[in-house]
Design a protein that fits this description.
Elements lengths: L2 H12 L3 H22 L3 H28 L2 H6 L1 H6 L5 H32 L5 H26 L3 H19 L8 H12 L11 H31 L1
Helix pairs in contact: 1-6, 2-3, 2-6, 3-6, 3-7, 3-8, 6-7, 6-10, 7-8, 7-9, 7-10, 9-10
Length: 238
Amino acid sequence: MNTTIAQITYRGMLGSRRVFLLLGLPVLLLALTGVLYALASSPERVTILLMERFGVAMMLPLLGLIVGTGVIGREIEDGVIMHLLAKPIRREVVSVTKLIVAASLMALFGALPIFISAFAMMGWEADVALGFAVGALAGGVAYAAVFLLISIVTRFAVTVGIIYALIWEGVVGTVAPGARDLSIQQWTLSIADAVSSSAFLKSQVAPGFAIPALIVTTLLATILAGRRLRSLTLSGSE
């Protein structure tokens, strides 16, 4: 990890309008939590539905898109990345540093609000809050890594990311049985289910598959991002 690159990236993410996008979804989640807490007759069932339908299915991939594309997308568009890559820094260090920053932002704006929301509804009951927080952290990092790679591969990262999040994760990965094994959303729910003992939470993917899949996806996306950055350097030199 390179601390200078990390500081610049944090400044770019938290010192721009992007921070309002990062705050908007967690604030909406907490607002929904307050309303549902006041109206719900079955807090456990409502909490599971809120976490599944909004926290994991909607908020997490959108945050991953904002963070994953934000930590490097603007630098590529503005050409600033070429000045960074001109310095004697290994490209893998750049990609890993960007991912660490993205992961910390996903923890702060994704996993933490999800934990607070579920905990406000149920406390420590059935470990629902802990399960969704752990799942959201693992899934959030994977989303960030995938969208980081997409940002480096194409200039249309946001468009590609939205299509991926809405069509693959939102529709195909939920409806098609075979596609569930290739869905970060389903892997996230699998981890939440493994940690929680709630009868209302039943994942479609076994944790024995979901956990290695999340690790492999995150590592592979980060490695490919580092290799792609090398080609960006060559293109810039030419």
